Each structure stands twice: as C-alpha cells, then as structure tokens.
C-alpha cells in the first residue's frame, strides 16, 4: 500500500438523500390498546441516510466529498443539511416544496429495533434537469462518480447521460443499484449489488459456477467493467470483466446493526479507487470496512484511521509506525487533525535505541492519538555529534523506531533543528527529553501560537547513547 494510506481525492455522489431518525427509550409494559410494547422515548437522534450516509462515509475517509440530491423544504431537510455541512461535505441539494424529506424513523429499546416508520413521496421528475445541470458542473474535476440509487425517483431520467458524461471524461462510475433492471446503469464501471439485488437481476444461483456465469452475463449485457457482489455472511465476490473471480470471506466480529453497511462498502471502494488502489485492493479494504461498521449502531461511518488500524491488525502490524517524508505526511496530519485527532511530535538522533528512549517515547504517545518522530539525517548527526556518528544510518534508525508499538510515523530532516518540519506540520503537542525548558524547545513558539502544548519529558536515568558507545569502546580497547 502507498505510504499515505488514503490520499485525499474528490468524489461526486448523486442519489437518493434521506434522514435516519432514531428514537430510543425504555420498554416496561404492553399497551392496553393493542398487544404492542410501550416505548418511553428518552432521546431522538438524526443521522444522514441513503446517499447522504455514503457522503458521510467518504468524508470520514478523508475524501473531498460533493453530494447532489433532493430534500424537502422542511425541518428534516434542515437537520440533514446542517449535519452534512458540519461534516465539510459540499452539498448541492434541491429543496422540494411539494415533497417531504425522505425520513426513516426507527424506534429502539434495549438495543433492539422495534418499529420503522417511513415518511416519503417519490421525487418529482422536474428535479432531474436541475440535478443534471449541477452534475455536469461538478464532474469537471471529480476523481470518481458514485451513484447511490434507492429507487426513490431522484435519478429518474438522468442516469444514461450522467454515466456517459463521466465515462467520456475518463471518470470511473460506481453504482449501488436498486431493483432488477440493471440496464439503467449501462456502461458503469462497477456495480455493488447485494445478493437479493443480484438474484433479482440475474436469477437465483446456488453454486459458485452459477454465480460466476450470471455475473459474466450481466457484465457483457450491460458493458460493466466489474461487479462486486456483497453476500452477507458469505463475504464478497469480485467479478471483473477480464480475470478470475476474487472471493473475500466476511470479517468475523459481533454484528450489532447492518444498517448502512452497503453504503460503507461503496464509499470505501470509491475512496480507494480514487486513491489509486487496484480494484482487488479496493474490494479488500471495502470488505474490512464493512466488518467494522456492522459493529456500530445505525448508519455509521468508518474513519480512515479505523480502517488503517484494522488492516494493520489483519496483517500483524498493528501500531507499527510508517516511515515517510514531510511531503507525504503533511496531508495525513491535516486529515487526522480535521477528524479531531491529537498529534504528538518529538525529534532526536536516536542513534542507538535504548530503554531510556523507549520509555520516553511511550510516555510521549500517551499525550495524544498519534506520535510522530522526526530524526536527524546522517549528515545532520555528523555535524552535531562529530566524526564516527551516527553508528546506525538513518534508514536503520527509522526502521527500528517504526517497529515500536508507540510510534505511528517516522520521518527524517536534514537541518540541524526540526523547526521547518514543525512549522509545516504544526503538531498539537510538542515534547522534548532531558532538561529542556519549554521556552527553549525548538518549535515551541509555533505550537503555542496555534493553541498547542509543549512539554519537557525526562529520559530514564542511567541511559545514554554516548555512554553505551564509550562502554563498548572501553571493553574492546578501541577509541
């Protein structure tokens, strides 16, 4: 995978926008009016649903997200727009005066869904032209077009021109389909049907041979590049136009709520394709994201950090640091800080890593969510420490630091101080070891001016690289 797990790209979403409302309360008795439970509602929570939930997933993954759709000119529409704007999603939503915002109200008690109430009317065809005009403008610099179809009428009449325009511009088109008529998505790059949608379009399948034959038929008939079939407890299957089927087992974890899992799949797939991953790699990451989101309540999102950590757990490299550079790390830092993460920064030569270093770095990591360690380059160490140093070159020093569980990112700097690195990254917490006074720590002025913290942490007594080197020289009789 690239050093930057998910580079920020632009994804345009068009589809059926909804509001998911969750009314939660206690249930202690049965109604005397009918044999149904009485729920004493304690709280009500609104969340973006449908295409809006796809947009929330993409924003959580660090994508520049644009959303086109229609909502009512009502309180539900206001709630939806406000939440999308707070998530930094660019919206071009048509406000309909004759139709309500599509709203799904779920009544829950003791973590169980008891009832769902749907408020909706089919979106009027007059909305289509307005959306198509906006889509043509928004497509200009998009990296991926994502179509989220819930068959509520938003996309009626616009799909053929929309897909054709995107394909003509070389923009991949991903579709989360609805219904049995896949011809409406003719020419799309990738469709992500669930099993019921796949069977509705291609007929029931029992064996893997039947699945593969049906997928190939749909791909040929409708000029798709691939199908990614989500198969519930059986995981996912990717069927490319050219190549063998690629099967992914379901991630084993407790399933709390499957609401919105399909939205997470296509959002992750779109983000990864936009970021330059292969289709197979993107499908693997989408499968991992789905495994995370079903453990959350409602139409939830998966952040890039959660996804990256899950991948690290799967590969046995959880919490291992990434060796990187300033250019690559800068957008990662911006994305993490935009998600409210606290970034800790420290620096040093770290020539011979010892227990004092490790304890210091472990303490530094407790001060935030991510720890960035900048090390002096070989030429910088030589200027500071003299001939014969460093003992270990910068590549080896970064590799050892990156292997520590408490270190998230490691990068080199060639100057005598990390001032320019700190000015570029502007960490939330700056720490230094030894007897440094806060005012004397390089970069403290930048961090403090931006509302951050600066701390001086003591190394453990009895450890130093210089004393280790001297001890070795004394024992070997070398100087």
Whole-number radius of gyration? Answer: 27 Å
Number of DSSP strand runs:
19
Look at the structure and give the mean pLDDT: 86
How would you write the strand order of the largest sheet? 5-4-1-8-9-10-11-12-13
The shape, in one word, is: globular
Q: Could you tell me the strand content as a percent range?
A: 15-25%
The largest β sheet comes out as: 9 strands, mixed
Assembly level: single chain
- What structural class results from the helix and strand content? alpha/beta
Q: Could you estimate the helical fraction of the residues in percent?
A: 25-40%
Number of helices: 16
* Intertermini distance: 44 Å
- In terms of per-residue confidence, which ranges show pLDDT below 50 for 5 or more consecutive residues? 254-258
Task: Describe the protein's architecture and organization.
This protein has 479 residues and is an alpha/beta fold. The chain is 36% helix and 25% strand. It has helices spanning 51-60, 75-86, 127-138, 159-168, 195-202, 208-222, 261-274, 279-293, 304-315, 326-338, 355-365, 378-385, 394-402, 419-425, 444-449, 465-476; strands at residues 10-15, 17-30, 37-50, 64-72, 90-96, 103-109, 112-119, 144-148, 173-176, 190-191, 226-230, 236-240, 246-248, 322-323, 343-348, 370-376, 409-413, 429-433, 453-457. The longest helix is centred in the middle third of the chain and has 15 residues, at 208-222. It is globular and about 85 Å long. The relative contact order is 0.09.
